[in-house]
């Protein structure tokens, strides 16, 4: 580490390179950590359900936005009718 400081002290024009390069590396690692912690596609907890997408019922809409809401309502009504029968 002291070698980097000596290099920058000898040639100050390299300081922005190390500052921006280092901040880019730190930002990239922080983004990866953020995605691992908050991402819905990432499963870190190995003791939970192995495949959480299997918990979705056939009548449930797993999409963020669906243009055809009547389809999912009809599908839910049909599944409830089949349960009663």
Automatic annotation (TrEMBL):
Segments traversing the membrane: 12-32
Assigned keywords, A-Z: Membrane, Transmembrane, Transmembrane helix
A Pfam family reported for this protein in Swiss-Prot or TrEMBL: B12D
Domain of life: Eukaryota
Designated name of the protein: Uncharacterized protein
């Amino acid at each position: 580490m002291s070698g980097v400081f000596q290099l920058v002290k000898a040639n100050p024009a390299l300081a922005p390179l190390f500052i921006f390069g280092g901040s880019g590396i730190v930002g990239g690692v922080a983004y990866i950590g953020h995605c691992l912690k908050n991402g819905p596609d990432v499963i870190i907890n190995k003791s939970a359900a192995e495949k959480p997408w299997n918990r979705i019922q056939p009548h449930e809409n797993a999409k963020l936005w669906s243009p055809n809401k009547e389809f999912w309502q009809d599908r839910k009504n049909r599944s409830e009718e089949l349960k009663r029968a």
